[in-house]
């Protein structure tokens, strides 16, 4: 299969195929007659796998490690479970942080409704932000510190 053919079969665009080829996740051969890359069914299987893994949130290095373990006839499933469990904890933490950010945004918008716009005068840039201080009322202090420490 040529780049366009494998891309169509996997439901991706040709640039995705080229990207995974550059990243050494696919191993096409070269057609000696025209020097085009030729992909086989194993490349298609790996491409589909990589696409699913990306949809589940796995990084490119993690996908490479999974494929390497499988190529070495070792089950990557224990590693996949461990990585996924860690990733789930990270996602849950990020969701909590986003929920706290949402609360701060709602609080700020409510406070800003009746405030005048103001013009920068050398002392202020934007009064809305500079006069807003609602960290304690919207968020427990430990959550607020956790959120702001990542900025």
TrEMBL record:
<dbReference type="InterPro" id="IPR000551">
    <property type="entry name" value="MerR-type_HTH_dom"/>
</dbReference>
<keyword id="KW-0175">Coiled coil</keyword>
<dbReference type="InterPro" id="IPR047057">
    <property type="entry name" value="MerR_fam"/>
</dbReference>
<dbReference type="GO" id="GO:0003700">
    <property type="term" value="F:DNA-binding transcription factor activity"/>
</dbReference>
<feature type="domain" description="HTH merR-type">
    <location>
        <begin position="1"/>
        <end position="69"/>
    </location>
</feature>
<dbReference type="Pfam" id="PF00376">
    <property type="entry name" value="MerR"/>
</dbReference>
<dbReference type="InterPro" id="IPR015358">
    <property type="entry name" value="Tscrpt_reg_MerR_DNA-bd"/>
</dbReference>
<keyword id="KW-0238">DNA-binding</keyword>
<keyword id="KW-0805">Transcription regulation</keyword>
<protein>
    <submittedName>
        <fullName>DNA-binding transcriptional regulator, MerR family</fullName>
    </submittedName>
</protein>
<dbReference type="Pfam" id="PF09278">
    <property type="entry name" value="MerR-DNA-bind"/>
</dbReference>
<feature type="coiled-coil region">
    <location>
        <begin position="81"/>
        <end position="111"/>
    </location>
</feature>
<dbReference type="InterPro" id="IPR009061">
    <property type="entry name" value="DNA-bd_dom_put_sf"/>
</dbReference>
<keyword id="KW-0804">Transcription</keyword>
<dbReference type="GO" id="GO:0003677">
    <property type="term" value="F:DNA binding"/>
</dbReference>
């Amino acid at each position: 299969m040529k780049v366009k053919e494998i891309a169509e079969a996997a439901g991706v665009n040709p640039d995705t195929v080229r990207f995974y080829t550059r990243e050494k996740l696919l191993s096409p051969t070269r057609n000696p007659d025209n020097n085009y890359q030729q992909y086989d069914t194993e490349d298609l299987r790996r491409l589909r796998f990589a696409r699913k893994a990306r949809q589940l949130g796995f990084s490119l290095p993690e996908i490479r490690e999974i494929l390497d373990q499988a190529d070495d006839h070792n089950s990557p499933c224990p590693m996949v479970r461990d990585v996924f469990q860690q990733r789930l904890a990270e996602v849950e933490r990020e969701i909590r942080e986003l929920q706290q950010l949402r609360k701060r945004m709602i609080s700020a918008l409510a406070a800003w409704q009746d405030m005048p716009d103001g013009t920068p005068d050398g002392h202020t840039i934007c009064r809305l932000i500079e006069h807003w201080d609602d960290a304690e009322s919207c968020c427990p202090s430990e959550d607020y510190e956790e959120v702001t420490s990542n900025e």
